[in-house]
Design a protein that fits this description.
Radius of gyration: 43 Å
Largest sheet: 5 strands, antiparallel
Distance between the termini: 158 Å
Strand order of the largest sheet: 2-1-5-4-3
Strand content: 15-25%
Length: 203
């Protein structure tokens, strides 16, 4: 009876691993399966293509020794050795690293420790381009904001100049009105003086 249970358990685990294998080769994301000692049990083709490695040189290796040690990343070690054993599941753990073979990359790492199968599933999402675009948009927005502030200052200064000019023009117009009235008053005075003078002569 014990042998039957052992065989059934072994078959179930093989079936589960088969499903996982099929899943790995279907998804469009870099994926690794690790054993409890953090050795690579399986790497999907996307992982191999993305990080320029082969299955032969990857599978069976300690993750930190992959690609001549390019995965010996302190934050990755912290995640795998300190955080994951306690939490069992980790989502969107960001890693930024300069890989000798493919250059600087920003990766979101999702991990799941399956104790029943004694396996660790790791999914890697390359968000380098996404972050580059975000930085570009942020810099563009900042530059635009600076331009708007500068333009607002220019417009404000121009408005003040126009207000001063308008005030000057209005002052001149009022002065002209006053002068015109003075001229008319003088003319009226002059005309009245002449009329009085004529009346005096006629008498």
């Amino acid at each position: 009876m014990k042998n039957d249970n052992f065989l059934k358990g072994g078959q179930q685990q093989m079936t589960s691993q088969h499903y996982i294998h099929a899943l790995l080769e279907t998804i469009r994301e870099s994926f690794l399966i690790l054993d409890p000692e953090l050795r690579v049990v399986e790497a999907n083709l996307i992982f191999c293509e993305t990080f320029k490695v082969t299955k032969t040189e990857t599978e069976g290796q300690l993750i930190y020794k992959l690609g001549n040690g390019q995965w010996d990343i302190p934050v990755l070690k912290k995640m795998l050795e300190d955080i994951l054993p306690t939490k069992k599941t980790i989502k969107d753990y960001e890693i930024s690293w300069n890989f000798p073979t493919i250059g600087e990359k920003i990766i979101l790492l999702n991990a799941n420790q399956i104790d029943s199968m004694k396996l660790i599933l790791l999914a890697f999402e390359d968000i380098t381009e996404k972050r580059r675009l975000e930085r570009g948009l942020a810099e563009y927005a900042k530059g635009l904001e600076v331009k708007i502030i500068e333009r607002t200052k220019q417009l404000s200064s121009r408005i003040k100049e126009l207000e001063a000019l308008n005030k000057t023009m209005i002052g001149r117009e009022l002065k002209m009105v006053e002068l015109k009235k003075e001229v008319e008053d003088l003319k009226q005075f002059h005309d009245n003086t002449n009329d009085n003078h004529k009346d005096g002569q006629q008498r």
